[in-house]
Design brief:
The complex is a heterodimer of chains A (about 300) and B (about 425). Chain A is globular and about 85 Å long. The longest helix of chain A is centred in the middle third of the chain and has 23 residues, at about 150-170. Chain A folds into 2 domains: about 60-140, Glutaredoxin (3-Layer(aba) Sandwich), CATH 3.40.30; about 145-295, Up-down Bundle (Glutathione S-transferase Yfyf (Class Pi), Chain A, domain 2). Chain A is built from 13 helices and 4 strands. Residues about 1-15 of chain A have low confidence and may be disordered. Chain A is mostly helical and about 300 residues long. A 4-stranded mixed sheet of chain A has the order 2-1-3-4. In chain A, helix 7 packs antiparallel against helix 9. Chain B has about 425 residues and is mainly alpha-helical. Chain B folds into 2 domains: about 5-310, no CATH class; about 330-390. Chain B has 18 helices and 5 strands. Chain B has helices at about 20-30, 65-75, 90-115, 120-130, 135-155, 165-180, 195-200, 205-225, 240-255, 260-270, 270-285, 290-295, 300-305, 315-330, 335-350, 355-410, 410-415, 420-429, and strands at about 5, 35-40, 55-60, 60-65, 310. In chain B, strands 4-3-1-2-5 form a 5-stranded mixed sheet. The longest helix of chain B is centred in the last third of the chain and has 53 residues, at about 355-410. Chain B is globular, with a radius of gyration of 29 Å. Classes of the chains: A mainly alpha (about 300), B mainly alpha (about 425). Chains A and B meet through helix 1, helix 2, helix 7, helix 8 and helix 9 of A and helix 2, helix 3, helix 5, helix 8 and helix 16 of B.
Chain lengths: ~300, ~425
């Protein structure tokens, strides 16, 4: 490069030559360009959109974590958040189809979400935070939070105490994770063991981050004790009533409790030790409450 | 044996800056005789093996967290030091449920008020931490606590209280507008946001959200307290652990003088009974506490507070250096990764419950990560070497050319070649 530059002051239109040399410097060398000109070698026709047995359903569609068989028979989802809304919509008497899905399919990144049947051609999904409002518009059921001051207070037992214990048991207890969570959340996603390992670690990391938001280390004993307290409080609140807050029909609070109690007591999931199950079985009325509500499915 | 309660130090004329610590202080001062315990404002979680405050020390036993301390005191005193023994049925359930409710809802509101609202954090909370922390923790802990509070409240979608986050977003939008090239840089308006203007007019949505959040917390509390003297009992029943917990959270909402007191205003408007209750209990149990009460070695000053303060030990050299070492190590990119992998490997080796295949997979993953780390070390070193090489090579070439140009032609001097410019720029760095 240096000898070439030495010549340059002698050349007449100096501006032009400087600019063209700069362009040469960045242009693709001819042999490389010839190779790349041969691409693409083959162009395949584009793939069809994925088609499944559920794409042509026209009713209300609720997207939840479940497997194909469970979806066909409308069985309870294995994810507490999904099961809560699935149960609530059942309880208030809205017809819907259950469609197996996962987080990546959701516009908000979280399941469940619902695509309503009406108006037709409306593809705006309803996220779980707006599902109750939608259900109230559909069937004019009550907004239960307004009826009892204890609703929100006792709901925080489920949303924090029991949820944290659930997250620990399902994701961070190595035995339960291998026996329950892995077959449900990880294995259906891929057959490749490296992908599975990575997914499993991501799930566990997410659960750990969630628990560590409220404490600086994970104290298993404290988590279990808090869950046990929470079950006791819920059991006292339910008392001898059929449903929470002595309502004639099950509602949102019953759905929230059922979402956890059903999964904790469901032997089909293959729990190993099921510490939470042992704690829950001490409260006979909660166990019966779950059995009563299971008849809706 | 005198029990030692280690807590975060005093702030805002309250005995501690942390709600759980305040609750523990209230619980101990209501249950224990005055000479059975001392209060140490150590303000350093590493004093306890659990790395958490509040922590109760009895000889060599450490118990942390409010709930565990309550349980420990009940066992330790054979049921004598227990505020919850007279609770029946629904009261017991309410005690548990309202505690969980306070710990989740009130904590996030305190996070929003004291940490996420930038004006409050920089003008009040951060200086308060500065007053109670020792070097070097005063530079390390507050940013950590600040970030943790932001993470905890992220899901509420109120980051617009946080001026840092707004500034970042505006910079992004600003540079997007500049990049689009439609607007000259100096014509893009840069309004100066304050929290009051955000809350006042630009963001009514925020105000609705805050309104809803504070109502969700205060309305049930107001309703259960009613005109009773305590949350669960009439005056003869005495306070319960729920009263202590509520005092901890509510006094931090009510007492601090903040530049932007939206939480206190909401509390006064929505829950007059709860406000009066908090003020009354706080006077009775905490009194007015200054930083000198907790930290001054002068015992006359200490005894003017109603709490049994004991001066915390000065940090030992070993503690300071281990804090510095850990912080530094975790701040250096590649080293941090190595430390994390080592921890994971230790965890795998310790945890014998992990089955064969999974164990192998995990250690393979850990190994690949280690390789990744060394690969990135190699890349960084190689990159620096390449850059240095390029500079050396280029500066020698450039110099020759520069001299030539100077002698021969003026035009060459005004229009230097592209490669040389780059070289100069890099050498300037």
């Amino acid at each position: 490069m240096t000898p070439e530059r030495r010549d340059s002051p002698g050349q007449t239109p100096d501006n032009v030559s400087t600019a063209s040399r700069a362009r040469d410097f960045f242009s693709v060398p001819a042999p490389v360009k010839r190779i790349f000109d041969r691409f693409p070698l083959v162009t395949y026709p584009s793939n069809d959109l994925p088609h499944s047995a559920w794409s042509d359903r026209r009713g209300n569609r609720l997207y939840v974590f479940t497997d194909a068989a469970g979806a066909r028979h409308g069985r309870p989802s294995f994810n507490p958040q999904c099961l809560k809304w699935q149960a609530y919509l059942r309880f208030v008497g809205i017809d819907f189809d259950v469609i197996p899905s996962n987080n990546h399919a959701s516009p908000s990144g979280a399941l469940p979400f619902l695509i309503p049947a009406h108006p037709v051609n409306n593809n705006t999904p309803i996220p779980s935070s707006k599902l109750q409002k939608w259900a109230i518009e559909q069937v004019h059921c009550e907004e239960e939070q307004q009826l009892d001051l204890r609703f929100e207070v006792y709901a925080s037992l489920l949303d924090h105490r029991i949820r944290n214990a659930w997250l620990y048991t399902l994701y961070l207890d190595p035995e339960e994770f291998a026996a329950v969570a892995k077959p449900l959340y990880v294995d259906p996603s891929s057959n490749n063991s490296a992908v599975r390992t990575a997914l499993a670690m991501q799930l566990q990391q997410a659960a750990r981050t969630e628990i560590l938001k409220t404490s600086s280390y994970i104290d298993v004993g404290a988590l279990e004790a808090e869950a046990s307290d929470a079950f006791e409080a819920l059991s006292t609140l339910l008392g001898d009533n059929l449903h929470f807050f002595n309502r004639p029909n099950p509602g949102l609070f019953d759905a929230s409790v059922f979402a956890y109690t059903h999964l904790i007591l469901d032997e089909k999931l293959g729990w190993r030790r099921n510490r939470l199950g042992q704690l829950l079985r001490q409260h006979e009325n909660l166990v019966q409450h779950r059995e009563r509500l299971l008849k809706f499915f | 044996m005198v029990l030692e309660l280690h807590v975060w130090g005093p702030a805002f004329s309250l005995p501690s800056i942390d709600a759980q610590c305040l609750a523990a202080i209230a619980y101990l001062s209501l249950t224990l005789p005055q000479d059975a315990w001392v209060l140490v404002a150590s303000s350093d979680p590493s004093v306890s093996p659990t790395c958490e405050l509040p922590a109760l020390k009895n000889d060599s036993t450490w118990v942390s967290r409010f709930r565990n301390i309550v349980d420990y005191l009940r066992q330790y005193s054979n049921g004598e030091w227990d505020l919850d023994q007279n609770l029946t049925g629904l009261e017991k359930a309410d005690n548990i449920a309202f505690s969980a409710f306070l710990e989740s809802r009130a904590q996030s509101l305190l996070d929003l008020s004291l940490y996420v609202t930038s004006q409050n954090y920089y003008n009040s909370t951060s200086p308060s931490y500065g007053a109670i922390l020792q070097w070097p923790n005063q530079w390390i802990l507050p940013p950590k606590i600040h970030t943790a509070a932001k993470d905890r409240t992220e899901h509420l979608g109120l980051s617009s209280l946080d001026l840092d986050a707004i500034e970042e977003q505006r910079k992004r939008e600003h540079s997007a507008a500049v990049a689009a090239g439609h607007v000259p840089k100096n014509l893009i308006p840069r309004p100066r946001d304050t929290v009051s203007s955000l809350l006042g007019k630009t963001s009514q949505q925020n105000q609705f959200k805050l309104e809803a959040l504070t109502a969700e917390l205060f309305e049930p509390l107001e309703e259960i307290l009613g005109d009773k003297k305590y949350f669960l009992h009439m005056s003869e029943g005495g306070p319960t652990s729920l009263d202590c917990l509520a005092l901890g959270y509510l006094s931090l909402a009510l007492v601090p003088e903040l530049p932007h007191p939206w939480l206190r205003d909401a509390m006064r408007n929505k829950a007059p009974f709860v406000t009066a209750y908090t003020e009354r209990q706080r006077q009775k149990i905490f009194g007015i506490v200054n930083v000198e009460h907790a930290l001054s070695p002068n015992s006359a000053k200490r005894s003017s507070s109603i709490l049994p303060w004991q001066v915390p030990q000065r940090a030992r050299l070993a503690t300071v250096s281990s804090t510095l070492y850990n912080t530094l190590a975790d701040a250096i990119p590649v080293w941090k990764d190595i430390r994390m992998h080592r921890r994971i490997k230790d965890e795998i080796e310790e945890n014998s419950e992990i089955a064969g295949i999974e164990r192998r997979m995990l250690s393979i993953v850990a190994d690949t990560w280690t390789k990744d780390v060394w690969l990135s070390v190699g890349t960084v070193v190689g990159g620096i070497a390449a850059l240095a090489g390029y500079l050396v090579w280029n500066s020698s070439g450039g110099e020759v050319e520069y001299e030539d140009g100077d002698e021969d032609d003026e035009l060459q001097f005004t229009l230097p070649d592209q490669p040389m410019q780059v070289g100069d720029m890099l050498a300037g760095l």
